[in-house]
Amino acid sequence: MIVWSGRGFLSLLILFITIFLFIPILPENYITQSFVIPLYIAAVFSFFFGIKWNKTLRVFIDKETGKEINFKSNHGLFWINMEYWGIIFSVLALLMLTQSLDKQGTEFYLNLFLIIIGIAFLVYFTTTLFKIKNSKISSFQFQKTTTEAEPKPSFVKQEISTNKFENEDPTQYLPK
């Protein structure tokens, strides 16, 4: 069972789509890379869109009480926010690559190149997350909304004021 919140399922969807695209493209002797490259693509997607979608904070103002209600976006997969899936996918790709370092020739150099890319992703992802977590609330995008932001059409007001059930006895609908 796959558990997600918001748009978190897109991380897994991007991973599967890119895997099914890269397996037929790369030759059979590059089977490790046909899983590693999609993991990197899913990691970049999950990280950047997770940060973009999860930093939105909506502030609603209740007209009756005047209180502010804060709603923070939550987009995650298996109870983990999307931006952290970028780190998880990068680590999985690095683990796959380190297991295939015993190859010879161009495949060894390709694996080494992909390991360097993975380490660069991890360094960038973690430093960016630390900067975001250590910054104050100014990193959020505020959207102030009220409960009655748009004026209601005139026919709605008439419908509410001419409710046919206002003068009826409600006990007539109870069982006897």
Automatic annotation (TrEMBL):
Keywords: Membrane, Transmembrane, Transmembrane helix
Name recorded for this polypeptide: Uncharacterized protein
Transmembrane segments: 7-25, 31-51, 77-96, 108-130
